[in-house]
Structures are given as C-alpha cells and as structure tokens.
Amino acid sequence: MEPMANESAALQGTVIPGAAAARLRSPRARKELNPETADALIRRLCHLLDAGDFFGRNSSLPPLEKIAKLFLASAGDKDQSEFNCAVSPKVRQQVPLLFQAMAGVMEERTGLMIQSTAEINGEGFGRGLIYSGRVILVLKSLRAGFPFPFTSAEKTISYGVECIEEGMAFLEKYKELTSAHGLLSLEG
Pfam families annotated for this entry (predicted)? Predict the structure, then answer.
C-alpha cells in the first residue's frame, strides 16, 4: 500500500495489512478452478474440434496441443481483431465453439437439455447465450470481441469454467424457486 495511504489509515485507526490491501487493489481475485470442470471443458472442446477436423489430421495430438493448434488465436489474429475494430475469422470460430463446449459440460452435469447460441458481427459486438428451456443460464455480451480472441489455453479454460459455475449456480437457484412446477414448465 502507498505510504501516504498507510499514514492516513493509521491516523484513522484502521490499518489494512499488506495482503488484504493487495486484494482490495486487484480488480478481480482469482479463485481456484474446479479441476473436474476444467477437464470436462477441455474434453468437450476437443470433441468439437475433432468434429471440424474432417480428415483427422490432428486426432493424435494431446488435448492441450489440439486446443493450441486448432482453437487458440495467434498474436497476429489478436492484432487483426484490435485493428480498426474488425473481428478476425479466429474470433468468429472461437465464440460459438467455446459456448457449445460450456453448454455440453452443463448438460452432462445436470441431465437437462442445455443449448447455446452465439452471434458476433463484423465489428465484434454480439452475445453468447447458454439456456435451458425458457431459462437463460449464462449471458455474456461481447464488445469489440472482448474477451475473445483467446491466445492461451489457461485463459480459455478459466473463462469457460467461470461461466459454467455461474450457470450451474443460477440453475440451482432457479430449481429451488420453481420446484412446484418444474424447471421447464410452461406455467407461471
């Protein structure tokens, strides 16, 4: 913490320890990822990438290498997306694939039919949506393509796991609220 801030806090009688001050300054504290969810997301993403690899040229690659080769954007793709607010073809590929993989993991976990849709225009504005019946579980707005394009597997998996956990938490909350009629009921 800044020396002046410490002095000001000391004068008021509220000194914040260094670790707590660092947490306050960081915009978002990173929590540990659920390894089971991360593994399921990697597996689902690899299945989707295999479906697009018509001749099976990359089927023998390990999962993270397959993601790096077929899914992740290069620095040039990222620069192309940032230049002139145009979206690179890599971003247009990443958005629906990642949302499909997240929906697949949630479907495996819940046993419900969970679907995804993603749209992005040429300037990078759009949305990604994961839903079940009439219930929207995850809704992410894309502005200038952000947070896409992903250039590292760690950031991709982290983003996907956070979205899955957000959707699962909302699903549990909604199940409790609609236990009388059922989750996919057309009533009330």
Answer: DUF269 (PF03270)
Q: Which amino acid belongs to residue 168?
A: M
Q: Long-range contacts of range 181-187, CB-CB < 8 Å, 24 or more positions apart?
A: 183/112, 183/132, 183/133, 183/135, 184/112, 184/132, 184/133, 184/134, 184/135, 186/134
Q: Which of 181, 38, 5, 179 is nearest to 105 (CA)?
A: 38
CB contact set of 167 (below 8 Å; sequence gap of 6+): 102, 106, 130, 137, 138
Q: How large is the angle between the packed helices 153-177 and 35-52, nearest 10 degrees?
A: 110
pLDDT, position 20: 42
> What is the reported pTM?
0.74
Distance between CA atoms of residues 109 and 77, nearest Å:
34
Which two tokens mark 16? Answer: 């914040």
Which CATH number is correct for 35-177, 3.50.70.10, 1.20.1250.20, 1.10.1040.10, 1.10.3100.20?
1.10.3100.20
More confident residue, 17 or 100: 100
112-123 pLDDT per residue, tens: 889 999 988 877
Q: Strands 126-132, 135-142: parallel, antiparallel or unpaired by DSSP?
A: antiparallel
Q: What distances in angstroms separate CA 152 from CA 53, 60, 63, 97, 107, one per listed residue?
A: 21, 21, 14, 15, 25
